[in-house]
Write a structure and sequence with these properties.
Number of domains: 2
Structural class: alpha+beta
Strand content: 35-45%
CATH architecture of the largest domain: 2-Layer Sandwich
Radius of gyration: 23 Å
CATH superfamily of the largest domain: NusG, N-terminal domain
Mean pLDDT: 89
Shape: elongated
Helix content: 10-25%
Length: about 180
């Protein structure tokens, strides 16, 4: 009996969730639950700062790709390959290549076990304006970015001298 492995299928970009739904329906209607087990669109949480507020968004890790846990044989290959929106399996030649288990573990960890990453749209040396907190209205230059904590170290001019100031990413806006 074949073992189950994770395979990567290529889809039209933007159709990953539709392909997931279509494939899950086909698996059910064609009684393939014993060969095709899970369909995943790899996503990770990302915190986006808009209007000074944190918004949690889901971001596709691999746009245009869907993961399928399955036992590969002619029938299961046919069901997946002929699902609307699927353009093919990822692999060399005509034979799909299963993902190595350690790669699957990394993707799974990236999907669920990690903290949400904060999307920081500024870079060092850029001027920004503090829009909230006790230093609201101050303009400073980004000296250091701490993406893990979502903090920035700014140099602001206070009483005629440069002063370091640590602020949360949500407290600033680009100029």
């Amino acid at each position: 009996m074949n073992n189950k492995y994770w395979y990567v299928i290529h889809t039209y970009s933007g159709y990953e969730n539709k392909v997931k739904k279509n494939l899950e329906k086909r698996v059910e209607s064609m009684n393939m639950e014993d060969k095709i087990f899970r369909v995943l669109v790899p996503m990770e949480d990302e915190i986006e700062i808009r209007d000074g507020k944190r918004h949690l968004t889901k971001k596709k890790i691999f746009p245009g790709y869907v993961l399928v846990e399955m036992i590969m044989d002619d029938d299961s290959w046919y069901v997946v390959r002929n699902t609307p929106g699927v353009t093919g399996f990822v692999g060399s030649g005509s034979k799909p290549t299963p993902l190595p288990p350690q790669e699957v573990a990394v993707i799974m960890r990236q999907m669920g076990m990690e903290e949400a990453r904060i999307k920081i749209n500024v870079r060092e040396g850029q001027s920004v304006k503090v829009i909230s907190g006790p230093f609201s209205g101050f303009v400073g230059t980004v000296e250091e970015i701490n993406a893990e904590k979502g903090k920035l170290k700014l140099m602001v001019s206070m009483f005629g001298r440069d002063t370091p100031l640590e602020v949360d990413v949500a407290q600033i806006e680009e100029i």
